[in-house]
Amino acid sequence: MKAGALVVAAGAVVVACGSASTPAPSACGASDALWVASDYSSSATGALALSGGVTSTVGRVDLGADPALSISAGRAFFVARDTDTLFELDPTCGTPTRQFSVHQASRSGTSDPQDVAVAGDGSLWVPLFEVPEVAILSAAGDPIGTIDLSPYDSDGNPDATAIAIVDTPGGEKAFVALARLNPYPTSVQPSWMLRIDVATATVEATVALAGRNPFGTMQDRDGVLWLAEPGNFDDATEPDAGVERFDTSTSTTALFAHEADLGGSVAEVSVSAGCGVAIVADATAVNATSLALFDPTSGSVVAPASASPLATPGFDLEGLAWSGGAMLVGDRQRASSGYPLHVFDGACAPVERPDAVFLPLPPIAVGVAQ
């Protein structure tokens, strides 16, 4: 281990999937971000601190093999896609505090939840990928309804990938990204954004997205949704792929930065006040990943993949977020001390810190809930 390295150690909290018990949160100090990691056999979650050379290390758990991290209204959720379970996380520690089932009885296998959005009344809205529905849970976690998505693609499933609930001039609305991969898994037709009135759980509008195949969760920044849209990963020059900017106040949208200019298919995007960053993948068989930087005001590309401050030989960069002025980037390539989470300062002129954070499993996602 090199001097100054930050190492995330395993904690003692273990929760069995499907258990009705509520684990007590572990004590932890101040933290700057939450992380979720998995080798697609086991998983871990916890928090990290970036100052003082010490991490807040809690919550090594095994909650499933295929997780995602969702953050909404200051709350954080570990989405166990393979077990149809949501684990709410302590927003400082990353420790599971409650769990909810979103399994739909209409399907024998997983319903494949993708994301979570919290409404003003505390209800949880969850888009499902294998069942064409948005599941709605009460604040207590009880199922209270679903929204049928089957009419929004000719194959009966529009492939919902993400959701955000936003206060707009017209009231509280849920925005659901529909990839519409038909024929599955290719992206050959327009993707849509579904606008749903939260008070009535009624679909109000479908908006054609400028880009195709919204991938992963969306970032809501002051009522603007930022979407990663790779189109097809075997082509990095598609004109309708890149980073999309969706204005929830007007339900208007535009492709903000094109993948041909960024230098790859966009797998993740995160925007701060001064800089936008995307993880992009090349069109080779291994989809090698790198970072591309863009101006969040103009959309101009500051540094394409060819000038990336970080690149990997395969699809290894996963997990992207800003914490304060620091850029956090997960790396699934194992190092001697674990799996690195790179930390950059300097916004769109990034300089990597020499003391990377190391996780016990390959990173899946990183985010800030506080």
Descriptive overview:
The structure is a single chain. The protein is an all-beta fold. It is built from one helix and 29 strands. The chain has one helix spanning 259-262; strands at 6-7, 33-38, 43-48, 67-72, 75-80, 85-89, 96-101, 117-118, 124-127, 133-137, 143-148, 160-168, 171-178, 192-197, 202-208, 219-221, 224-229, 242-247, 252-258, 265-271, 276-281, 289-294, 301-303, 317-323, 326-331, 339-345, 351-352, 357-359, 363-367. The strands form seven sheets. Strands 1, 24, 25, 26, 27 and 28 form a six-stranded mixed β-sheet that branches. The chain has a four-stranded antiparallel β-sheet with strand order 4-5-6-7, with no helix packed on it. The two termini are 31 Å apart. The model is unreliable at 1-26 and 53-59 (pLDDT under 50).
Please describe the topology of this protein.
Layout: E1 6-7, E2 33-38, E3 43-48, E4 67-72, E5 75-80, E6 85-89, E7 96-101, E8 117-118, E9 124-127, E10 133-137, E11 143-148, E12 160-168, E13 171-178, E14 192-197, E15 202-208, E16 219-221, E17 224-229, E18 242-247, E19 252-258, H1 259-262, E20 265-271, E21 276-281, E22 289-294, E23 301-303, E24 317-323, E25 326-331, E26 339-345, E27 351-352, E28 357-359, E29 363-367
Parallel strand pairs: 1-28
Antiparallel strand pairs: 2-3, 2-29, 4-5, 5-6, 6-7, 8-9, 9-10, 10-11, 12-13, 13-14, 14-15, 16-17, 17-18, 18-19, 20-21, 21-22, 22-23, 24-25, 25-26, 26-27, 26-28
Q: Could you write a compact summary of the structure shown?
A:
It contains one helix and 29 strands. With 370 residues, it is an all-beta fold.
